[in-house]
């Protein structure tokens, strides 16, 4: 039986490569999964650009599904060979944050994000899942690996954004940015009953995809300040909620400005790239601090139970994120896949990586 | 019967004076109240300093109680001579914001704040209450004018802050600033079951008052960064919620930094004085935009129903804000009272102004 | 100008007829509407059967739209000739219940239901709308009278049921009963993101309609206890929520039994017909009183703001209840329409009644 | 080292006795605690009366604190000798119910209640705690064993009731029954800011205790229907919430009748004694199924995080349940203590049982 495997690893700032490693082993509460399919995430690219301090050689990736390879003796819900998935966020389920329902912040700020950031990632032939009875989930036969992968990261994140927006049934919202997470926020805003979904997209292909994913109106920021464009549609008060899905200071400000005085601004974008300058909240649209606006910074919670509900949504045709799978690769070609994600070339959104077994 | 009255009016930037005016008259849905007692608010001072554009001659004030003098023919709940109070916020009860429960933002941003900002204020021998069946409330015999006045502004605002903080029973919070609103937030945080209430106060007399109002610990910012002081007490993760009750950019940042990754920051402070620079949200303590932190900008809702509940709290001894009444004046001395508020002299917190009838 | 009009009136238990009446006039805060289209509701039939004590001659109906005929001088948002609708529930917007957001219970139990129960109904050539600035809403050009009528009663009620069910995204629910309100609950459960919607319908045509409206599975209670049938699908724990849309004691019990131990039971059905026996909660499925189950009795809230959101949902194609319009009549034929509703003949669900002007 | 211990065991319907048993041992995720202090609960008495099917010889009890005796090798948060407590509810932290925050219903109906019901209880010299990193909590030096014990059951249950009642600040509520849980609901209703707390108590000593615990008014049901008595105080609409803390069908009905049409009924009482007849909901006060009333059946959630907050409340003087400790025993006298609880003799509320080491 093989004891080593291939993995896509961080090899220093802006360098990655496939390396050989030992197959991980499972502690008593853990599971090791043999990977069948993975996706690559912009967060992998952020990580490789040096945003988080991680050791050289650390395996990348947090979007992988597969079959159970090894099971810790305290794990009760799984058997070898079971087809399984896991959320990109893998909380412990026990700390104060988890017990209060904020499992994304397991043990403290962003602590639920463990793959790559705190331990070996999942872009490898095998990967390790901690606290498996909390985190691991069976993939129903009716779902493809590809569908399950969407549930593990971008869809659950987009949905978390739409949930946090708390738009009442028939209410209005704007989603700024139509990358993979923004598109999933669009899908999810429709799923949860928003009455008007306006999106802001800069590229023509994303604009088309945005419409396909449920946007009623797609705005092009080159045609004028999106805030003005939105208010031309909904009136001067603005919308009930705005979701920031870009990760820039200016789009964050746009979200504060475009919402009405009972509105919610949800931040999904990652604001760590290139600067640690603060986010800025313009005071006039913030009512000099006395509007009833709410700003939420959101990372999706982890755990099996949420994954099960996402699987049900996928299986019963409520949402279909698969049009975002723009490219497909074998794992032997994963470096090229990574490079395309890094360069954002050929309109790539999500590349699907399959493993030959 | 007299047709004119005295009122404390705005006479140009940083100028006020008692002027003679006609007694207001009530439209069909309104009531005119003959004032028996008023208080002066720092917001009056902000207004006189030129923050809002209001016409010269506009009556100041929004904290007054009295007896019903004239009643519009559509008003059903009141009779002449009834002892009544009204919240500083007087929403219409009908617009979309009011119907969604955000009456402070009646008809749009901060629109529930009408006295002085949109119409004649209440620091006068008579004042006009719009939408009386929504806004006016009977004062029970068991309550003094002074108690009722607290319910009309600072107490309801402090309580709105504590409610928005959503601290779970036994949770922890910090209140930065112990002016009148900050002190009422302290009272209210205790009222709602916080397990540890830490306040930050710069003056010794406010620190003493803060303890009296329920603070478990009062921090002096001159003894080091309050964030560090708080974390020395509760641990490195910080507190469940922080309430900004100063109105400065630095204390707002303190609140973002001092909260844990599931924490809530409530802004009660007024950020319009002297600058329209944006509020700043430091990105590291905001989890690069992915912490589960929530920031709420809060203005208390108006309406009779809430006032009734505040009256019950006062009557049944749940809260006692009256130690904040540091000074007492007759209305003939109201200019001096205003000047003391303006200069913050003699440790003044709330001056009580009584009318001789 | 005409001063009298035709109206469908209650003429004693189980008797109705078209009578001649004076056209109503508007008080200062009210509006009188000239009716263009109405629908008849099973509640009209309940009323005529003697459930509520109403005077003979009282006009029936609470589902009508039309154009503004007369406006009170305190009403600000409308002009003569405006095309308008109003919810079946017409709260005052000012009482404690309204101020707390429970406008269906305006001034006390069920008090928001005023048409027919407390004042003249709306199945007439003209009808009176109280507190028009709170209740009346403009109908957008893009909406038909028929669409607007659905928003005024069955759709808003079904949606209130789905909202109260608080099913998490991707969660499961059962809706027992697929009459007009049950069908709208089905539409609404899909709208709000349920992952699995199971309905229980006794008639074949309703079962087909239920599928059309979004049910994933439609159960026939003649094929066995619906609780067993549901548990065969979702497992022994049951579903996240159940909505009672029949109005019988046994279906209420079914809802308690079919929900899991964190589940919500929503009652939409009317339990006043033929008996005042109590509803019964079986103790074993209620965890001997210690399950975490929640039971909610729901009547839709009224008000313009909610209607606006419903209109947005209809206009933007989120929901389409119009397949329920099974029959169409002129107002001169309204007695026949009423009789068909009363007899539930010819598979009638909602009859549309148009007025010749 | 001793390998056996004494335990108070169920010896058949209505029979208990101290028996000798092996000291339990800890699995990898568990801890064994050497008991220092226990309390006895009415639930123990219910259990012995034959309500749950448990094997003869099963150790009773679920309110015990002590020091860590043995630690499983996967447990990270504790060391031998640590002073610890645990909630009466000991959920797994991993199942769907736990992940959704309903840990009292761990793995299904009432499944979080494990001591005695599913495994050996805690009225023994040693007891076993499963999923220790989720459930076990350090007792701060500042807290007595006695205080910690209150947090483990009656206080957390009473608080869960007050939380579920969702009384707005200054709102009104009634608590029917002033046994240990009812008294803790009274304490907790005050803690969370209710404006008027009315209790119903049948015994004079409980009435006195109820006042001490914060009741504004204590009603004697022998002086007339409590519903009438309450409405004499608050008006005909009734109160915002009612908590059932007796466990009888008639008091449950009282709670439905005494609440207003936006009110919440919380059931804390155990309805399994002597009958499995259904609970009954009178339809008129339930608005024929269309009031906005909510009925919640509540069992307190388990877990360390909640215990920590309860400890903070006790330590900082927010609540003091210790006046309920009416009797004290050594463990060698535990059979007598049990008998007194069983007979409710000498006004016993909570007996404290200490172990001689």
TrEMBL record, chains A, B, C, D:
SMART domains: PKS_ER. GO terms for molecular function: oxidoreductase activity; zinc ion binding. Keywords: Metal-binding, Oxidoreductase, Zinc. InterPro entries: ADH-like_C, ADH-like_N, ADH_Zn_CS, ER, GroES-like_sf, NAD(P)-bd_dom_sf. Its cofactor is Zn(2+). SUPFAM superfamilies: GroES-like (SSF50129), NAD(P)-binding Rossmann-fold domains (SSF51735). This is Threonine dehydrogenase. The lineage of its organism: Bacteria, Bacillati, Actinomycetota, Actinomycetes, Actinopolysporales.
């Amino acid at each position: 039986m093989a004891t080593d495997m291939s993995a896509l690893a961080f090899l220093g700032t802006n360098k990655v490569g496939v390396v050989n490693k030992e197959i991980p082993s499972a502690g008593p509460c853990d599971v090791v999964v043999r990977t069948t399919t993975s996706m690559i995430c912009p967060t992998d690219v952020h990580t490789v650009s040096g945003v988080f301090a991680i050791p050289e050689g650390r395996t990348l990736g947090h979007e992988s599904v597969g079959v159970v390879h090894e099971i810790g003796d305290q794990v009760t819900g799984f058997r070898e060979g079971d087809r399984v998935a896991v959320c990109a966020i893998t909380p412990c389920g026990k700390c104060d944050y988890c017990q209060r329902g904020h499992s994304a912040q397991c043990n403290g700020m962003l602590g639920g994000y463990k793959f790559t950031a705190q331990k070996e990632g999942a872009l490898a032939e095998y990967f390790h899942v901690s606290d498996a009875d909390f985190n691991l989930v069976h993939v129903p036969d009716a779902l493809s690996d590809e569908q399950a992968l969407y549930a593990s990261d971008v869809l659950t994140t987009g949905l978390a954004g739409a949930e946090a927006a708390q738009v009442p049934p028939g209410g209005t919202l704007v989603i700024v940015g139509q990358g993979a997470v923004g598109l999933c926020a669009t899908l999810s805003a429709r799923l949860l009953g928003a009455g008007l979904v306006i999106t802001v997209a800069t590229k023509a292909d994303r604009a088309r995809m945005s419409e396909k994913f449920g946007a009623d109106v797609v705005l092009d920021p080159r045609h004028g300040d999106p805030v003005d464009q939105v208010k031309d549609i909904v009136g001067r008060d603005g919308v009930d909620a705005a979701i920031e899905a870009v990760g820039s200071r200016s789009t964050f400000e746009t979200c504060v400005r475009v919402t009405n005085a009972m509105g919610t601004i949800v931040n999904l974008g990652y604001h760590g790239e290139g600067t640690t300058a603060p986010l800025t909240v313009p005071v006039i649209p913030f009512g000099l601090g006395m509007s009833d606006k709410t700003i939420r910074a959101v990372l999706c919670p982890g755990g099996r139970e949420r994954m099960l509900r996402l699987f049900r949504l996928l299986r019963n045709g409520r949402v279909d994120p698969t049009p975002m799978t723009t490219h497909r690769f074998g794992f032997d070609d994963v470096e090229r896949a990574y490079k395309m994600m890094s360069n954002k070339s050929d309109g790539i959104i999500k590349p699907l990586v399959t493993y030959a077994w």
